[in-house]
Amino acid sequence: MSSWNKSFWSGPAWDREEQAPFIPEDTRIFAMQIAVIGRGDCSEDEGRMAGAVGRLIAGKGGIVCCGGRGGVMEAVCRGAKEAGGRTVGILPDTGDGNAYIDVVIRTGMGHARNVILILSADAVIAVGGGYGTLSEIAVALKTGKPVFGLSTWNIEGVADCATPEEAVSRAVRAGRRSRQSRSHRDPGEPL
User: Fold this and answer.
1) The total number of structural domains that make up the chain
2) Which helix (H) or strand (E) is 33 found in, with range?
3) d(CA 120, CA 170)
4) Domain, as residue range, for 42
5) Domain with 169 in it: what CATH number?
6) 38 lies in a domain?
């Protein structure tokens, strides 16, 4: 992400016009959205991995999207916020979600919100996980979203990663390809 873009998105909303350089009216600005999925009651190790994933995504200028609750979802959001990143929680109910969410999307849809979460992402990282995570992985694979796993389900289509750094690096590369196929940007233009 360019330096003007980082300062543009980190400033207060009311001050953004003053910070931004001239951008032609028909230009669309995108930030990569990476879904991070996992249990709402994760282990300490899964929580550490999720926090690292959040920090790494934020460090690359991406937006963390998650289910908005506790466990892996809270840990990834906390990590992203520690690194100055942005977070989106797509909730199954009408609550407020965890304390580290910037944008709360209250669906009232229960597990059906998993489809919204996955379709909102350019790539998916699974950290650990139970059956809810498995359903999100299935939606991602069915819809052609790249999935990268850290200590998660060992199934065809999920790229196993050894470290949070590897998972985020591979997700960002795959997400760039995904974004180019659906955006109006020049494919040679940096993210």
Assistant:
1) 1
2) strand 33-38
3) 18
4) 30-182
5) 3.40.50.450
6) yes
Q: What is the pLDDT of residue 33?
A: 96
Position 64 in a domain: yes
Six-digit token string for 147 = 């999935």
Q: How many contiguous H segments (helices) and E segments (strands) does the chain have?
A: 7, 7
Q: Are 89 and 60 in contact (CB under 8 A)?
A: no
Question: Tokens 């879904």 — which residue?
Answer: 35
For residue 150, list its beta bridge partners: 127
Q: pLDDT tens for residues 37-48?
A: 999 999 999 999
CB 167 within 8 A of CB 53: yes
Integer Cα distance of 143 and 139 in angstroms? 6
**Residue located via tokens 């196993």:** 160
Nearest to 41 by CA among 74, 65, 66: 74
The closest of 110, 116, 121 to 76, measured between CA atoms, is 121
Closest C-alpha to 133, from 151, 153, 119, 157: 153
Mean pLDDT, the chain, rounded, equals 86
CA triple 78-84-86, angle to 5 deg: 70
Compute the distance between CA of residue 91 and CA of residue 107 in angstroms, rounded to an integer. 6
Contact call for residues 38 and 72 (beta carbons, < 8 A): yes
